[in-house]
From TrEMBL:
<dbReference type="InterPro" id="IPR016037">
    <property type="entry name" value="DHQ_synth_AroB"/>
</dbReference>
<dbReference type="InterPro" id="IPR030963">
    <property type="entry name" value="DHQ_synth_fam"/>
</dbReference>
<keyword id="KW-0479">Metal-binding</keyword>
<dbReference type="Pfam" id="PF01761">
    <property type="entry name" value="DHQ_synthase"/>
</dbReference>
<keyword id="KW-0862">Zinc</keyword>
<protein>
    <recommendedName>
        <fullName>3-dehydroquinate synthase</fullName>
        <ecNumber>4.2.3.4</ecNumber>
    </recommendedName>
</protein>
<dbReference type="GO" id="GO:0003856">
    <property type="term" value="F:3-dehydroquinate synthase activity"/>
</dbReference>
<comment type="function">
    <text>Catalyzes the conversion of 3-deoxy-D-arabino-heptulosonate 7-phosphate (DAHP) to dehydroquinate (DHQ).</text>
</comment>
<dbReference type="InterPro" id="IPR056179">
    <property type="entry name" value="DHQS_C"/>
</dbReference>
<keyword id="KW-0547">Nucleotide-binding</keyword>
<dbReference type="InterPro" id="IPR050071">
    <property type="entry name" value="Dehydroquinate_synthase"/>
</dbReference>
<feature type="domain" description="3-dehydroquinate synthase N-terminal">
    <location>
        <begin position="62"/>
        <end position="174"/>
    </location>
</feature>
<feature type="domain" description="3-dehydroquinate synthase C-terminal">
    <location>
        <begin position="176"/>
        <end position="316"/>
    </location>
</feature>
<keyword id="KW-0456">Lyase</keyword>
<keyword id="KW-0170">Cobalt</keyword>
<dbReference type="Pfam" id="PF24621">
    <property type="entry name" value="DHQS_C"/>
</dbReference>
<dbReference type="InterPro" id="IPR030960">
    <property type="entry name" value="DHQS/DOIS_N"/>
</dbReference>
Length: 352
């Protein structure tokens, strides 16, 4: 896979990525290297990574608990304290080795420690490979409200090694696939069709095209003033559902991709109601999503709570919920609005 050049950093693939990382470390003469992992990536991914890391610079590993529930300021404080105790300075490098929680939180930790040190993202889940690690968004959750605190900060490099995907469960692969489906519906229908029509598709073959789409959008609109909002397709409704399932002790937490998949069904319904999105394609989306992800039980009593969480979505403006909606595949509208009634109907459409 060829290197993709983002605005200020390269995205390298496979073996070339490790050699380029070695060059980066040598050229910048870092005083120390900190590698941020969680329990899972330390066990499953760190051995492969450290085998491929060529450097004589001092290395320290910082290990945190896995999961979205730990993507918060308390975890950041713990990491900042450990870095301070171990003598990190402005010439230190932080390498994030993990999924979206690690790359989001690690980037935020690095970009705020001593007003900012260099960091490198090495995503190890499909979700973080095709989405979280690229684009310069860093951040943490505020309670159950996702990504409420953060900054835009670019890494020095993103290193993509698809071998890490072999450590993932089928559920985690499906989670990341939702973001590829998103790119397909908004930018290149080939991606959606490949996943929808071919259950045996090799998802690795779709990675490069997915990253290229995201990079193209982010390069044009790095601070999400306009076009970049298209990357939120499925995410307004999806984040509401994800947050509700995260905070409700009677619900099993959803993966990010599972929630976004529900969000795409709901937002396709809203698109059909408000933008003329074809009903036949709405049914196609619903059938494909349920075939891939199964059906999540959303009770009628859940809807009010999900609606309340939508009001806190970070994309809202003046208290109005904002959506990315589709007129057709590859034809989207940003900053679209919908009535509360239609939003509720979209959840009922999914439930039916």
């Amino acid at each position: 896979m060829e290197t993709i050049q983002a605005t200020t950093y390269p995205i390298h693939f496979n073996e070339k990525a490790y050699s380029e990382l070695a060059v980066l470390i040598e050229q910048n003469a870092y005083s120390s290297i900190f590698i941020l992992v969680d329990d899972n990536t330390f066990e499953c991914c760190y051995p492969r990574f450290i085998q491929n890391l060529e450097t004589k610079t001092q290395i320290e590993v910082i290990q945190i608990d896995p999961g979205e529930v730990h993507k918060n300021i308390e975890t950041c404080v713990g990491v900042w304290n450990v870095m301070t105790e171990l003598g990190a300075d402005r010439k230190s490098l932080l390498i994030t080795l993990g999924g979206g929680v690690i790359t989001d939180l690690g980037g935020f930790v690095a970009s705020t420690f001593k007003r900012g040190i260099d960091f490198v993202n090495i995503p190890t889940t499909l979700l973080s490979i095709v989405d979280a690690s690229v684009g310069g968004k860093t951040g943490i959750d505020l309670g159950v409200l996702k990504n409420q605190i953060g900054v835009f900060a670019n890494p020095q490099m993103v290193l993509i090694d698809p071998e890490y995907l072999h450590t993932l469960s089928a559920r985690e692969i499906r989670s990341g696939t939702a973001e590829i489906i998103k790119y397909g519906m908004t930018h290149d229908i080939y991606l959606f069709n490949e996943i929808k029509d071919n259950p045996e598709v090799n998802i690795i073959d779709l990675i490069h095209k997915s990253i290229a789409i995201k990079n193209e959008v982010v390069t044009e609109d790095p601070k999400e003033k306009g076009l970049r909002k298209v990357l939120n397709w499925g995410h307004t409704m999806g984040h509401g559902v994800e947050s509700y399932f995260l905070e409700n002790p009677n619900k099993e937490a959803l993966t990010h991709g599972e929630a976004i998949a529900i969000g795409m069904v709901c937002e396709a319904f809203i698109s059909a109601k408000t933008q003329g999105f074809p009903t036949k394609k709405l049914e196609e989306i619903k059938d494909a999503i349920i075939a891939i992800y199964g059906k999540v039980t959303i009770e009628n009593s859940d809807i009010e709570h999900i609606m309340n969480l939508l009001k806190h979505d970070k994309k809202n403006e003046a208290g109005v919920v904002k959506f990315v909606l589709l007129k057709d595949y590859e034809d989207f509208v940003i900053n679209a609005e919908a009535s509360e009634q239609i939003i509720e109907e979209s959840l009922n459409f999914y439930r039916q």
